[in-house]
Design goal:
CATH architecture of the largest domain: Roll
Number of domains: 2
Bound molecules: calcium ion
Shape: elongated
Structural class: mainly beta
Largest sheet: 7 strands, mixed
CATH superfamily of the largest domain: Mannose-Binding Protein A, subunit A
Order of helices and strands: EEEEEEEEEEEEHHEEEEE
Number of helices: 2
Distance between the termini: 41 Å
CATH class of the largest domain: Alpha Beta
Length: 265
């Protein structure tokens, strides 16, 4: 889609009483939509559906493409994607910490965000996924492969920190998901990919008590089988003590526990 873009302008200040207030060109950005973030900086989409945010260091390209961005006073950022399907566009929420977009609905023509971060859309309500449902599943044990009976719920309603995800699962009478073998890991990743493809999920592994000593939260056992991604765990950034499973790779990364990820109980 290559629409015409336009100058981004702002209303100038009154220079002296009685003078006219002029609209000044902020910059020619080939802009097609504009919003203002909670720090008072403009974000635009342009005629190539790129997203650009004004920062202290000038314009910064935000990953992803969108036809429109909307930001709440609490800093919640939503976007409509660039593919008009049926009655509207896909609705995406931005995870600023991890710089990733998560799809939360579809079928929207326009979007605005309230002060509390609640999105409002114009769209076909029967296609809304917001709020997304958790994705529950279970399988019986498969003694030939030595896997346990597992019940899993993949939570893609709202990303949480590891501690919040851990507390959430425990309040449901469970734990963050664990895996003890490639068979169990394959079951988890295959199932999660059916709910939402190629995401990071918190699982019940951490080395919070002692650096480098990784254990599972459900029975405090040591991680014998972990399927770490290449060069992980690296305890980077500084202090990564919680296990995030990346289902595209079927591999685990140690990550900063405050990062907000989807999770599996
Ligand atoms: Ca660590
Ligand atoms: Ca890491």
């Amino acid at each position: 889609m290559m629409n015409k873009g336009y100058n981004l302008k702002f209303r100038g200040e009154k220079v002296k009483s009685g003078s006219n207030v002029e609209w000044k060109t902020f910059e020619n950005m080939e802009a097609t939509s504009v919003t203002v973030d909670n720090e008072g900086n403009p974000w635009i989409t342009n005629n190539k559906n790129e997203i650009w945010a004004w920062t202290n260091e000038g314009w910064k390209r935000v990953q992803g493409i969108a036809s429109k961005v909307a930001i709440g006073a609490d800093g919640s950022i939503f976007a409509l994607d660039d593919k008009l399907i049926g009655d509207g566009y896909g609705i995406w929420k931005y995870d600023s910490k991890n710089q990733k977009w998560h799809k939360v609905g579809e079928g929207a023509k326009d979007i605005a965000v309230g002060d509390d971060g609640k999105p409002y859309i114009i769209g076909a309500t029967d296609k809304l996924l917001w709020p997304e449902k958790a994705c529950p599943g279970s399988w019986s044990d498969d003694s030939s492969s030595g896997s346990r009976r597992m019940q899993i719920t993949v939570h893609i309603e709202e990303p949480k920190s590891w501690d919040d995800a851990h507390a959430f699962c425990q309040a449901q009478g469970g734990n963050l998901a664990t895996f003890r073998s490639q068979t169990e890991l394959d079951k988890l990743t295959n199932y999660a990919n059916k709910c939402i493809a190629d995401e990071f999920f918190w699982v019940g592994a951490n080395d919070k008590e002692r650096e480098g000593k990784w254990s599972w939260t459900d029975d405090k056992s040591t991680l014998d089988f972990a399927s770490w991604a290449e060069e992980e765990p690296n305890n980077d950034d500084p202090g990564e003590h919680c296990g995030g499973l990346y289902t595209e790779e079927g591999a685990m990364y140690d990550q900063v526990c405050d990062a907000e990820l989807f999770f599996m109980c």
